[in-house]
């Protein structure tokens, strides 16, 4: 009798725990099911990326001589749900045990746990060893802590994995070089083109499938050019290290019109579906430092993966399932239609929305300080904002999207992730981008019809949530400024905000 090894669409790596001890008599099972592709209406390019990468991975395993059972979405006998597909495959093949790596999302794990009682064979759910901190590691770290700040978790991870360490001390004497990584964009930056790939026959087949089956989903499907194999994803990493890393730190927060890719790595697509592993990305960056790459860039990049990515995942599993229900600021405004159709005069939003629609990608500061900041200041409903972020980005999975949105952006988790809301007025966007130059609104004006909406919405947010935040030590200075503001000014802010919020 053989084992049935289930591989989910975001576990596309031969190193996953489900494939440990694999024998040639085992079956590896992978399936494309409508239930998953439509439980939210993912961006078309995300579906192409995942289905094509799955099909390529299955081909590689077959070439290695393994028995792969693969359900394509269009197969006549595909039942289009995980539960039914597992039943079907167990009933048609002689298997003694189902082995899988823990899925990345809580909702799917609940389903898998039920298999233990529903199926008539043993089910073994193994730890997802692609992450560098296990659930237990994170629980132990978080136990007895009043606040779960990323920075302290990150330091522990640096020591544990001996990354950028000089004996017991951080390389260069500091743990974090973020202060050097906030340079505004300058004219004449020669930003390299992203590393792209031509669609092969498998990808072309999937593009046609997505055009036929998921045509009503959000996003453009034109010029799909992402990597869909591990070897191509490794090329993206290699080119990043060689060409972009040097300026990654300096311009990490900068935004330029029609420059969606900046100096970022664009590896989240591949890390999150298994084509790349976090430690190999970290080690490549550390190697580059030893060969002379700037420490602020290397440390900044490593912190995103070893720190933020692992921490965000830890928060997700620690806080679920109640985390997705949290709404600490009682935000209830409906998501405006322009999040979907980009019919807005705010040029910063317009830029970020159009790039998101086109590429299923926006970089961190666009997600955080433009779209996220706007959602926070307008009091948009966390469920709807989360759903939007989950749909529109090709790297979005609930484990990483939810804590970033409900925690980092919306403060819906009441400060589990962020020590204060990431709220800012138009001057931040003006400093870090060239978006304001071509905007209908004036970033210099504070209130009134032609003023930048971020300006009055920022103060309006502080006024609305005064009771909650005025005793937060990190916000004391700004609340002192608010207290000194004259009453007419406060009225103007409130009136401009009401008018704008009613208009969207
Ligand atoms: C509101 C919001 C929603 C987000 N949603 C997602 C999401 O659905 N999926 C996702 O992978 N990232 C998400 N992020 C984090 C981050 O924006 C993306 O990981 C990053 O933009 C991906 O582009 P890159 O690969 O070029 O990243 P780089 O800027 O080159 O960073 C390198 C890597 O660090 C990791 N990383 C950096 N920041 C974070 C973070 N805050 N959380 C987790 N990993 C991080 C990513 O794996 C990324 O690939 C979100 C951030 C915000 C503020
Ligand atoms: S002026 Fe305001 S709305 Fe316009 S681009 Fe600048 S920050 Fe955005």
- Spans of at least 5 consecutive residues whose pLDDT stays below 50 are none
Strand order of the largest sheet: 3-2-1-4-5
> What would CATH call the class of the largest domain?
Mainly Alpha
The CATH architecture name of the largest domain reads Alpha Horseshoe
Assembly type: single chain
Q: Which sheet architecture does the biggest sheet show?
A: 5 strands, parallel
Radius of gyration: 24 Å
Strand tally: 7
Number of domains: 3
The ordered H/E elements are: EEHHEHEHEHHEEHHHHHHHHHHHHHHH
Distance between the termini: 61 Å
Helical percentage? 40-55%
What structural class do helix, strand and pairing data support? mainly alpha
CATH topology of the largest domain, by name, is Serine Threonine Protein Phosphatase 5, Tetratricopeptide repeat
Report on the architecture of this protein.
The chain is mainly alpha-helical and 504 residues long. The chain has three domains: 2-126, Rossmann fold, CATH 3.40.50.620; 135-319, Serine Threonine Protein Phosphatase 5, Tetratricopeptide repeat; 338-503, DNA Cyclobutane Dipyrimidine Photolyase, subunit A, domain 3. It has helices at residues 34-38, 44-63, 82-92, 106-118, 135-142, 150-161, 201-213, 230-248, 268-271, 278-290, 295-319, 338-341, 347-359, 364-378, 382-392, 398-409, 426-432, 453-464, 466-469, 476-484, 487-503, and strands spanning 2-6, 27-31, 67-71, 95-101, 123-126, 165-166, 169-170. Strands 3-2-1-4-5 form a five-stranded parallel β-sheet, with helices on both faces. A two-stranded antiparallel sheet has the order 6-7. The longest helix has 25 residues, at 295-319. The relative contact order is 0.10. The mean pLDDT is 97. The structure holds flavin-adenine dinucleotide and iron/sulfur cluster (SF4).
């Amino acid at each position: 009798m053989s084992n049935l090894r289930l591989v989910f669409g975001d576990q596309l790596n031969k190193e996953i725990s489900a494939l440990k001890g694999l024998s040639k008599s085992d079956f590896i099972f992978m399936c494309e099911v409508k239930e998953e592709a439509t439980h939210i209406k993912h961006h078309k390019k995300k579906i192409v990326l995942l289905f094509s990468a799955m099909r390529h991975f299955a081909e590689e395993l077959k070439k290695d001589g393994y028995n792969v059972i693969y359900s394509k979405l269009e197969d006549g006998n595909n039942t289009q749900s995980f539960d039914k597909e597992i039943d079907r495959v167990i009933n048609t093949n002689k298997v003694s045990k189902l082995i899988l790596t823990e899925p990345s999302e809580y909702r799917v794990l609940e389903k898998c746990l039920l298999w233990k009682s529903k199926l008539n064979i043993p089910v073994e759910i193994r730890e997802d060893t692609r992450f560098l901190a296990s659930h237990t590691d994170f629980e132990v770290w978080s136990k007895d802590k009043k606040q779960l700040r990323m920075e302290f978790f990150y330091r522990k991870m640096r020591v544990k994995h001996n990354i950028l360490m000089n004996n017991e001390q951080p390389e260069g004497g500091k743990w974090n070089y973020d202060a050097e990584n906030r340079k505004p964009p300058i004219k004449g930056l020669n930003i390299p083109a992203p590393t792209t790939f031509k669609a092969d026959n498998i990808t072309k087949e999937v593009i046609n499938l997505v055009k036929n089956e998921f045509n009503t989903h959000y996003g453009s499907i034109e010029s799909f050019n992402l990597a869909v194999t591990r070897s191509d994803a490794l090329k993206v990493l290699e080119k990043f290290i060689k060409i972009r890393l040097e300026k990654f730190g300096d311009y990490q927060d900068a935004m330029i019109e029609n420059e969606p890719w900046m100096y970022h790595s664009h590896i989240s697509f591949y890390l999150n579906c298994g084509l790349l592993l976090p430690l190999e990305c970290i080690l490549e960056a550390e190697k580059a430092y030893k060969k002379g790459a700037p420490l602020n860039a290397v440390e900044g990049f490593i912190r995103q993966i070893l720190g933020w990515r692992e921490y965000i995942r830890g928060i997700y599993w620690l806080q679920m399932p109640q985390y997705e229900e949290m709404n600490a600021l009682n935000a209830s405004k409906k998501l405006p239609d322009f999040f979907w159709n980009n019919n807005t005069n705010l040029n910063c939003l317009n830029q970020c929305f159009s790039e998101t629609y086109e590429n299923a990608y926006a970089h961190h500061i666009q997600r955080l300080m433009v779209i996220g900041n706007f959602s926070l200041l307008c009091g948009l409903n966390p469920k709807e904002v989360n759903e939007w972020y989950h749909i529109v980005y090709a790297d979005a999975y609930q484990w990483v999207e939810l804590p970033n949105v409900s925690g980092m952006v919306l403060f819906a988790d009441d400060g589990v992730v962020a020590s204060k809301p990431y709220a800012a007025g138009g001057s931040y966007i003006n400093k870090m981008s060239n978006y304001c130059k071509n905007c209908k609104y004036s970033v210099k004006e504070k209130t009134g019809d032609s003023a930048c909406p971020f300006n009055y919405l920022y103060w309006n947010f502080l006024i609305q949530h005064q009771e909650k935040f005025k005793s937060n030590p990190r916000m004391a200075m700004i609340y002192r400024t608010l207290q000194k503001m004259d009453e007419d000014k406060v009225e103007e802010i409130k009136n401009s905000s009401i008018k704008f919020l009613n208009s969207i």
